[in-house]
C-alpha cells in the first residue's frame, strides 16, 4: 500500500467543509435576508420608513394643510436626525447596548415575582426547593414605573 492511500489529503476534508459551510451561509442569507446593520443604520432605515409611510398616507380626515404640516414635520425631524447619525454613529450602538442591559435588568427584577404569581399565594414551594430571599414578599406590590 502506498503512502498516498494510507494518508489521504488532510486539506481536502477542510476544503470540503469550508465549501459546505459557505454554501449553507449563502443559502441562509437568501432565506433570512441581510443581517441587521449598526444601530445608526437601523435608525436611519426607521426614519426613512416612517417618512415614506407618512408621505403615502393621504386621508380625507386631514386637510391638505394638515397633511402638508405633517410632511413638513417629518422632513424637519429627518433633517435633524441625519447630522446626529453622521457625526455620532457609535452613540447609537451604545444606546442599543444600554437598552439590552435595561431589558436584562427588568427581566431579572420580575422573574422571581412571576414565579410566585404563577404559583399562587396558597401553594407552597416545591419540596426541597430553597427559599427565595432575593425578592419582595409575594403579597408586596412591585412598582416598575
TrEMBL record:
Extent of Basic and acidic residues compositional bias: 22-31, 129-145
Region (Disordered): 21-40, 111-145
InterPro entries (UniProt xref): DUF5304
A Pfam family recorded for this sequence: DUF5304
Name the record gives this protein: DUF5304 domain-containing protein
Amino acid at each position: 500500500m502506498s503512502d498516498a492511500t494510507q494518508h489521504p489529503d488532510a486539506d481536502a476534508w477542510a476544503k470540503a467543509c469550508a465549501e459546505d459551510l459557505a454554501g449553507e451561509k449563502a443559502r441562509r442569507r437568501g432565506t433570512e435576508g441581510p443581517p441587521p446593520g449598526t444601530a445608526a443604520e437601523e435608525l436611519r432605515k426607521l426614519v426613512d420608513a416612517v417618512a415614506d409611510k407618512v408621505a403615502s398616507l393621504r386621508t380625507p380626515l386631514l386637510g391638505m394643510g394638515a397633511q402638508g404640516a405633517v410632511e413638513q414635520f417629518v422632513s424637519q425631524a429627518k433633517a435633524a436626525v441625519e447630522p446626529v447619525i453622521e457625526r455620532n454613529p457609535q452613540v447609537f450602538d451604545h444606546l442599543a447596548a444600554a437598552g439590552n442591559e435595561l431589558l436584562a435588568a427588568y427581566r431579572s427584577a420580575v422573574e422571581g415575582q412571576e414565579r410566585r404569581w404563577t404559583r399562587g399565594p396558597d401553594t407552597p414551594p416545591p419540596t426541597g426547593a430553597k427559599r427565595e430571599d432575593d425578592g419582595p414578599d409575594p403579597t408586596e406590590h412591585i412598582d416598575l414605573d
